[in-house]
Design brief:
With about 90 residues, the chain is mainly α. It has one domain. Helix content is about 15%, strand content about 0%. It contains one helix and no strands. The longest helix has 15 residues. It is globular, with a radius of gyration of 13 Å. The protein starts with about 70 loop residues before the first helix and ends with a helix.
């Protein structure tokens, strides 16, 4: 789902892809399933350099469109990151 308008994203996403509903760039950190504030570079994948503007399209090879919904201000990603870190404490 698009982080900016919460509409479903197309199946194929390229660096220059735009959301068909709101016209915002799709290949952004906020639209990625690996986006997790609190992780190194706010990403669950091991990326080599920080993406400064997380609302703009980037060249990340790990990008996967987020399938679930979003809470305001990325609260869903924060909660998911916290849950993952908690589970890792117990080897889950």
């Amino acid at each position: 789902m698009c982080y900016f308008c919460t509409k479903p994203l197309p199946a194929a996403v390229y660096r220059n892809s735009l959301c068909p509903d709101c016209g915002r760039e799709i290949k952004t950190c906020h639209n990625c399933e690996y986006f997790a504030p609190g992780y190194q570079y706010d990403c669950r994948e091991s990326i080599d350099e920080l993406v400064v503007d997380k609302d703009r399209a980037n060249f990340c090879d790990h990008f996967r469109p987020k399938k679930g919904g979003f809470a305001p201000n990325g609260e869903t990603a924060k909660a998911d990151g916290a849950k993952d870190r908690f589970k890792s404490l117990f080897g889950d």
